[in-house]
Design goal:
Mean pLDDT: 84
Number of helices: 18
Helix content: over 70%
Structural class: mainly alpha
Oligomer: single chain
Largest sheet: none
Shape: globular
């Protein structure tokens, strides 16, 4: 289900981002990016890590039959987030207007906050509802609301508002706000039904607020640092290079996120498994899950990473010539950062879900300091590429230290011999893309270029998995295929008419 939502996001969201970049222009997209970064930062500051409580404690309370604790947790989270979100939405435009020009926030962005500030309560409540549904393992309604419904509404509303009021950042801002607000309702309805179905406890067990505060506080601090790393570059680039450079940075970062989506898909399912296996003392199974996750994520993501690294100028050219001329070198650095991040596996999540979230917070703090320093030192030296170099530096530090901690604290080695199966398929797919690059050189027509890039993507994955098939699959892959055949067979037999 998560993969289906991801595929929908890619198929619909990628062409829409190209349309949006061409409609708003580099400066307009950059202006929206700066404003959105302010809202995202404010949402992180006001969330207090409450959403992490839902995905951590709801499964535990469900297993123990502690219905009262679940109801209190959900009610507490929704009330606090709604109150702080509403307060933030009313104060954020005022506070931004008081900031001096040296902060790098354009006057237009401060004005646009009057609309985008509405996203504060909407996004905070939406994320808490999604994590609560994930805690109940209600993946379908979560994926439908956050991936399919929200994106569909955003696209439809953007087209409608652009046609009525003209293509502007203001129209797009209203489309984003209205789409996310509407997508809340199916999740709220599903969570309400789940709460009603909870059994009544004969003797309600007490709630442990200290456990909530400890876990939420650690995740809150980690989330703030990660959020600042992800958003501060827009503000620094905007202050030093202007809104147009921010627009290029946004597009490159969006493209870089496509390979990492596969990790998010896998971790949606695997993260609770890490916690269960650590609690049962099954360290061999924990190591197997880490290697399995890393292997499957990289094999799914490598095709897109190769496209970002080999065809960056042609890919960015879909958005416009300015994106290609200014963003190609940045894309190469960000593709390397994606290799480091995904290739080392979900070691940070493993530490977080096995009781080592405090030491992980220290690692994230060191990473944040290094990345912040990189922004202020490398962007003035190398321009936009400096932002990518700072991200790459922080990624290397974060993941290498996490690998060492996993070995030191859990006795689990990051590397597994199954990873050697990545290289031959990657070489074959890379050679295919180099040949496709020769075909793309000199192509000016946007439609032809898009068709060739789509063909390159299809051929890359076809060749990658064909070579993977020839080399041989791992036993985990064969088990997955057996399970799929079994389920398809059962579905087919149920569909047969009775004679």
């Amino acid at each position: 289900m998560v993969m289906a939502g991801t595929l929908f996001t890619f198929v619909v969201g990628f062409p829409f981002q190209i349309y949006l970049a061409r409609s708003l222009g580099v400066a307009g997209l950059g202006l929206f990016g700066i404003t959105e970064a302010l809202v995202t930062t404010a949402a992180g500051l006001l969330s207090f890590g409450l959403s992490s409580l839902a995905v951590r404690f709801i499964p535990e309370y469900t297993t123990r039959g502690e219905s009262r604790a679940i109801r209190r947790l959900v009610a507490f989270g929704l009330v606090i987030l709604a109150a702080t979100g509403a307060l933030g939405a009313s104060l954020l435009p005022l506070l931004a207007g008081l900031m001096p020009d040296i902060a790098g926030i354009p006057v237009e962005a401060k004005a646009l906050l009057s609309v985008l500030a509405l996203l504060l309560p909407v996004s905070m409540i939406s994320f808490f509802l999604a994590q609560s549904l994930r805690g109940f393992q209600e993946i379908r309604i979560m994926v439908f609301s956050t991936s399919i419904l929200a994106l569909t509404l955003k696209v439809v509303l953007t087209f409608g508002l652009f046609a009525t009021f003209g293509a502007s950042v203001w129209s797009y801002a209203w489309a984003v706000v209205l789409a996310q607000a509407t997508a809340i309702f199916p999740m709220a309805w599903a969570l309400w039904r789940l709460m009603r179905m909870l059994p009544t406890e004969a003797e309600p067990s007490p709630v442990n607020p200290r456990a909530w505060a400890s876990y939420a506080g650690t995740n809150y601090a980690s989330g703030l640092l990660n959020m600042l790393i992800g958003n501060l570059d827009r503000v620094v680039v905007g202050a030093l290079l202007g809104p147009s450079a921010v627009g290029v940075l946004m597009v490159v970062r969006q493209l870089q996120q496509f390979p990492t989506v596969f990790q998010q898909v896998v971790l949606t399912v695997v993260s609770p498994v890490f916690a269960r296996m650590k609690a049962s003392g099954n360290m061999a199974g924990l190591a197997h899950q880490l290697h399995l996750s890393n292997d499957w994520v990289m094999r799914m993501a490598l095709g897109l990473i190769l496209i970002l690294a080999i065809l960056p100028d042609h890919l960015l050219g879909l958005y416009g010539p300015t994106f290609a001329s200014q963003g190609t070198s940045l894309m190469l650095v960000m593709a390397l950062a994606a290799v480091v991040n995904l290739g080392t596996g979900p070691v940070g999540i493993l530490l977080n879900m096995t009781g080592h979230h405090v030491v992980l917070l220290r690692v994230i703090a060191v990473t944040a300091v290094a990345t912040f320093a990189g922004y202020f030192v490398l962007i003035p030296m190398f321009g936009l590429m400096g932002a990518g170099l700072a991200v790459l530096l922080g990624t290397i530090i974060n993941n290498c230290v996490a690998i060492w901690l996993v070995w030191k604290r859990l006795g689990i080695s990051w590397y597994n011999s199954r990873f050697s199966g990545w290289f031959l398929p990657s070489a074959a797919a890379g050679a295919t893309l180099l040949a496709m690059r020769l075909m793309l050189n000199g192509v000016e027509d946007l439609g032809t270029r898009a068709a060739l890039l789509a063909s390159a993507t299809f051929l890359t994955y076809a060749i990658f998995f064909t070579v993977n098939f020839v080399v041989g699959f791992h036993e985990d892959d064969r088990e997955l295929m057996r399970t799929a055949r079994s389920r398809i067979g059962r579905s087919f037999n149920r569909a047969k008419p009775l004679k």
